[in-house]
Design brief:
Helices cover about 55% and strands about 0% of the residues. With about 120 residues, the chain is mainly α.
Length: about 120
């Protein structure tokens, strides 16, 4: 609605009803419905313990990371939480950490036997 001044809403600076303004709300359904679920604590703990198991404590932490990773992946597959990628990372790093620990124990045992 433009009057003689050529400004929508009149010369007093008001806006036409329904026009864009500071109080305009986004339309319903704006964005993604629901959004992605957040990663579970188990998935995050699995990934962190898998990383620490490769660096700090190579026998205990990878076993815990593997168990937590399997549990978190099952929860994510059932739709009870997110973080499936973190859970898989924890499973992989836990498995690699366990393999390194077994390899290290085997090498130490062979060196100990050959030193006798």
């Amino acid at each position: 609605m433009a009057d003689q001044s050529g400004i929508a809403g009149g010369a007093n600076g008001t806006q036409a009803p329904g026009g864009p303004g500071y109080d305009a709300q986004p339309p319903a359904g704006y964005g993604y419905p629901g959004g992605a679920p957040l990663p579970s604590g188990k998935a995050t703990a699995s990934m962190v313990l898998g990383i620490l198991g490769l660096v700090l404590i190579p026998i205990i932490l990878p076993i815990i990371a593997l168990c937590l990773g399997i549990s978190a992946k099952r929860m994510a597959d059932r739709g009870q939480g997110g973080g499936r990628g973190q859970a898989v990372a924890g499973i992989v790093m836990g498995s690699v950490g366990i393999a390194f620990a077994v390899l290290g124990i085997t090498v130490a045992t062979i060196q100990g036997i050959s030193a006798m």
